[in-house]
Amino acid sequence: MGLTDVVSWVPAWLGYLIAFILLIYLYGVWPYLTSQIRLPGPKPTVFFGNLIEVYKHGVIPTDMSNLKKYGRVYMSWTGRIPTIYVSDPDLVKQICVKEFQNFPNRAIHAPLSPLQRSMITSLKDDHWKFVRSVLSPAFSSGKMRKMVPLIQICIDRLIENLGDLVKKQRSIDIKPVMEGLTMEVIGAVGFGIETNVQNDLNDRFLIMARRVFQVNSLTKIPVILTLFFPFMRPIFEALNMTADSGEVMDFFAKMVKHTIQERRQQPSPRKDLLQVILDSSVDDLKETVADRDVDVDALKMDGVKRKTLTDKEVIAQSLVFLLAGFESTATAVSHLLYSLAIYPECQDKLVEEIDEALKGGAPTYDNVMKLPYLEKCLCEAQRLYPAIRGNSRMSREAITINGIYIPANTSVMLMGYALQHDETYWPDPEKFDPERWSPEQKAARHPYVSIPFGAGPRNCVGMRLAQLEAKMSVVAMLQRFRFIRAPDTEVPLKMKKGSFLLPENGIRLRIESREK
Questions:
Q1: Longest dimension (CA), the chain
Q2: DSSP codes joined into one string, 375-407
């Protein structure tokens, strides 16, 4: 039987099926075969790239394993999307600072809702510069000093609740308690919203915020399909099939929109974040961006010269502060208290510094900024437990940096967690050692080996407020309580598998009163 006979014998439908399978296979392997990136990295699987290992072991373990196998610069595939992973501090500095004009935007591949596309975390180029310029004045030292009384009210409620927990003489999960505090603070200093979250940790306000971080976006079908079929992203966005939790976003968007409408009708004397944004003027912008090479007067958005944000932009930035500020600060404070409980000698030294400097007085903007050991402890906790695994950037044009060729439109992941746990820069990296942050050790260390808030012009705009809130709350708690390792305290903490560094089983500690 000849080849012609075999071909004629095969049913037409089977031939079409074979051809279809071959085309799908070719589509699945094509990016791996044609990539211009020539870096070491794990071998991709057809279609999935290197996603299977991430799902199997988790984001952070996979990152650390790849770092050991392939070095500080390697490539990996998220479906069909190539990403260059960087944990070399010199290269991080080049990308974030010296070559920032070629890496001004974050690498985002998931379909986004219109509200998400208006968030500062997603904005691009001049639009991002403009929004950043409007937001920056809200975090000046003068503005934050005015927020201290609002923060203090929330902290007073925290201290009262901790006093009640002490009486129960048992360990507690400190993370939900800190979530209650940070949600109340961001509600008060951000939007003038009074909540009762700390007295009701099952409050819908808090539950809805938690849902943003509890749901892994990679489990959402539109996100997964976009990784395999990137051309479908605009289709999903047009159909409103996006990466966000619609119910959660709608809940908070309606709340913020209502507050904005009230402020438009009757401006508030409160100098919270929302009012600062609504009051922003072109003069404020000039002062803020004088050293950023941003011509605010000439800047046009949507074809119209802009001085302030649209309501949609205000709502979008409000949601960023509300959700990101709530979770990141709660996580930072919880991990710091955990570290102080595991290393009681550090807690003793910090308590001594607080008692000597404040002499029983309330924490304020000025006095907490003058506590050097507190600064060391917070920096070390954020090194050990950053909020996320890293920050992404997207190359605008092809470029070669330090011998590394990065094609145009290529995702770059700056590996904050990997850098901050690299034993080359941090001897015994899993140990909590605040003295790593002494002036002498800092001066001898590369400044870009710890980037918990990102680096360069696109770092976290709310960093200073988050640090102020964390310092004030920790000082107030340590003035009255000690945090103790309990029999059910997990050491080391087991983390969830996602990109957010969240404890799998909570952070259980015992609290003792310092009053005899």
A1: 99
A2: HHHHHHHHHHS-SBS-EEEE-SS-EEETTEEE-
For 462, left (φ over 0), alpha (ψ -120 to 50), or beta? alpha
DSSP state of 455: -
Q: Are strands 508-513 and 172-173 parallel, antiparallel or unpaired?
A: antiparallel
Contacts of 402 (CB under 8 A, 6+ apart): 88, 90, 91, 94
Helix residue ranges, H only, 229-272: 233-238, 246-265
Do 84 and 73 form a contact (C-beta atoms < 8 A)? yes
The encoded tokens of residue 110 equal 């998931």
CB burial string 239-274: b at 16+ within 10 A, e below: eebbbbbeebbebbbebbeebbeebeeeeeebbbbb
Gap between the Cα atoms of 120 and 98, Å rounded:
22
Q: For residue range 77-119, list pLDDT tens digits in order.
A: 999 999 999 999 999 999 999 999 999 999 998 888 888 888 9
For residues 159 and 317, give the distance between their C-alpha atoms in angstroms, rounded to a whole number: 30
Q: What is the Cβ-side half-sphere exposure of residue 323, based on CA atoms within 13 angstroms?
A: 25
CA 380 to CA 418: how far, in whole Å? 15
Q: Spell out where 391-456 has E strands.
A: 391-394, 399-401, 404-406, 411-414
- Classify residue 117 by burial, with Cβ atoms within 10 Å: 0-12, 13-18, 19+: middle
Which H/E stretch holds residue 15? Answer: helix 12-34
Burial of residue 228, with CB atoms counted within 10 A of its CB: 0-12 exposed, 13-18 middle, 19 or more buried: middle
DSSP-derived pairing of the beta strands 411-414 and 481-484? unpaired
**What are 125's two structure tokens?**
């180029």
pLDDT digits (tens, 9 = 90+) for 132-158: 988 888 888 888 888 898 899 999 999
Residues with Cβ within 8 Å of residue 456, at least 6 apart in sequence: 95, 96, 97, 100
The order of strands in the sheet holding 81-86 is: 73-78, 81-86, 411-414, 391-394
Domains of the chain: 35-513 (1.10.630.10)
| Beta-bridge mates of residue 454 | 452
Structure tokens at 501: 């560094």
Structure tokens at 491: 């050491």
| pLDDT per residue as tens digits for the range 400-443 | 999 999 999 999 999 999 999 999 999 999 999 999 999 999 99
Task: Report yes or no: 501 and 388 within 8 Å, Cβ to Cβ.
Answer: yes
Sign of the Cα pseudo-torsion (336, 340, 341, 343, in order): positive
